[in-house]
Amino acid sequence: MTKNSIAVIGAGKWGQALHFALSQKQECLITSRTKKDIRNFVDLDTALNCEYLVIAIPAQQIKQWLRDNFVYKNQKILVASKGIEASSGQFLNEIYEEFVPSKNIGFISGPSFAAEVIKGLPAAIVINSKSKKLYNEFEPFFPNFLKVYYSKDVIGAEVSGAYKNVLAIASGICAGLNLGNNARASLISRGLVEMQRFGKHFGAKKSSFIGLSGAGDLFLTASSTLSRNYRVGLGLAQGKSIEEILEELGEVAEGVMTAEAINKLSQKHQIYTPIAKEVKLILDGKNPLDSLKDLLSSNQ
Length: 300
Ligand SMILES: NC(=O)C1=CN([C@@H]2O[C@H](COP(=O)(O)OP(=O)(O)OC[C@H]3O[C@@H](n4cnc5c(N)ncnc54)[C@H](O)[C@@H]3O)[C@@H](O)[C@H]2O)C=CC1
Ligand SMILES: O=C(CO)COP(=O)(O)O
Fold this sequence. Notes:
The chain has helices spanning 13-22, 44-48, 59-69, 92-96, 114-117, 132-138, 154-176, 181-201, 206-210, 212-221, 228-237, 242-249, 255-269, 274-283, 288-296; strands at residues 2-9, 29-31, 50-55, 76-79, 105-109, 123-129, 146-151. By secondary structure, it is of the alpha/beta class. The chain has 2 domains: 2-152, 3-Layer(aba) Sandwich (Rossmann fold), CATH 3.40.50; 162-296, Orthogonal Bundle (N-(1-d-carboxylethyl)-l-norvaline Dehydrogenase, domain 2). Strand 3 (50-55), helix 3 and strand 4 form a beta-alpha-beta unit. The structure holds 1,4-dihydronicotinamide adenine dinucleotide and 1,3-dihydroxyacetonephosphate. 1,3-dihydroxyacetonephosphate (13P) binds at residues 82, 111-113, 165, 168, 217, 220-221, 227-229.
């Protein structure tokens, strides 16, 4: 293993933005399934030899990717994905912990559109890890335009990052249906309560939901067309099928599969999650206007 070296795995939008950010102070390698014309692009074996890895592949693919490709050599890992595995309902920290000890795993959270990070625009993010030492080791790699906070609430960050994508879909639907600013603000703030309730069940701290990881990322994603998930919502409001929307998008929208994961977990653990439930029903074909009326009417 090459000491003090860092690599990004996954060269999609977020992987490339993180590679740009992490290349400001030192050399940062990058790799992905298909070769790309990016500075310091290397093969997977070279990347896996780095002491520090930032992994930015979609949540639904991570378990299989780890099984097929990952070789643990005491690397320290930052997970950049935001989602919950739909097939199992497993959180990403549970999946990673099958391959890497928890002291060597951290999660990036907070409001951070790749399109802005890659322009060097300022943002504040959080590294969430059971180990403060891991944060202390990763933090100096980040450029001055990113302020990096520490939290040990891994599950709080994970639930926030994943749940806000589902709420961004709901918010996009609300906006696409022209239901007004009041309705959308109501939906977002009830969504914040809903994701906090869900997270609490799994041991998340309340403070994570009112900080950068929760409210910060939710307000960002649920109010901007830069968000893929929000754009999925706009498409659903126009009556497009989810297949058509994802085809047009050409990038991952984690909220789609995460809505399924949340519904599975809510049913199993008897958690009240009405917005995630309606998003899943819309994805399965329910009329979006009926759904939003059901959600926002006083009979609910
Ligand atoms: N784009 C953004 O602004 C942000 C994205 N994220 C999260 O980062 C993750 C990745 O998102 P993006 O890079 O934006 O998506 P993207 O759709 O732009 O790229 C996904 C990347 O994953 C790779 N990939 C897909 N399946 C794979 C597999 N089976 N094995 C290996 N690699 C595979 C693709 O080749 C591609 O390079 C998602 O979980 C997303 O929620 C988090 C913060 C910001
Ligand atoms: O997580 C994000 C910003 O923090 C990106 O959101 P989208 O995946 O909806 O584009």
